[in-house]
Amino acid sequence: MEIPPPVLPPIAQKPAPLPLAKRPFAFQAALASVLAPAIAFGLGIVVNIGMGDQLPPLAHIIVGSLSIVLILLGFIFGIIALFGVRHYGKKRILGRSIAGICINGVLIALMVISIPMYKRMAERAKEIQQQKSEQQQPSP
Fold first, then answer.
1. Which residue has the higher pLDDT, 126 or 52?
2. Higher pLDDT residue, 9 or 122?
3. Per the domain annotation, does 7 fall within a domain?
């Protein structure tokens, strides 16, 4: 009597992993619109508060300029994302893009409003510097 060989269950094969679904640009732009001001503020906090006196003044100027560029790009990406709503639908695009436009728009408006104040501060600083230099010069 021959014993038949044992029947083994078939080996479960894992299907090949699917490629990651690339999200549409409108979705990515809406997300970037919301994240841009957060990144700008985080960068400003780390550099100005965390590293304060350790960095040269040029580093603060570069970080400030980079923050302005991030906020402007966030506003632009929010507008671009709105154009994708018609093609990709409202889900996860419309709300983020509107939030990004509002947040970045308010920050841009505050920047524009503050320009005259900074000009007056610079003029006042020049006046004070001139007064100090006149006081230090000896009178003949």
1. 126
2. 122
3. no
Taking the model in full, what pTM does it have? 0.69
- Token pair, residue 54, equals 């350790």
Domain for residue 4, yes or no? no
In a domain, 59, yes or no: yes
Residue 125 dihedral angles phi and psi, to the nearest 5°: -65, -40
Residue range 37-82, pLDDT digits in tens = 999 999 888 887 777 677 787 888 888 899 999 999 999 999 998 8
CB count in 10 Å sphere of residue 28? 16
Q: Judge contact between 72 and 112, C-beta under 8 A.
A: no
CA distance 12 to 14: 6
Q: Is residue 13 part of a domain?
A: no
Rg of the chain taking only CA atoms, in angstroms: 29
Helices (H) and strands (E) in the chain, counts: 3, 0
Q: How many domains does the chain have?
A: 1
Q: What is the pLDDT of residue 36?
A: 93
Interatomic CA distance for residues 134 and 129, integer angstroms: 9
Range of the domain at 87: 25-134
Residue 95: name the closest of 115, 77, 74, 78 by CA: 78
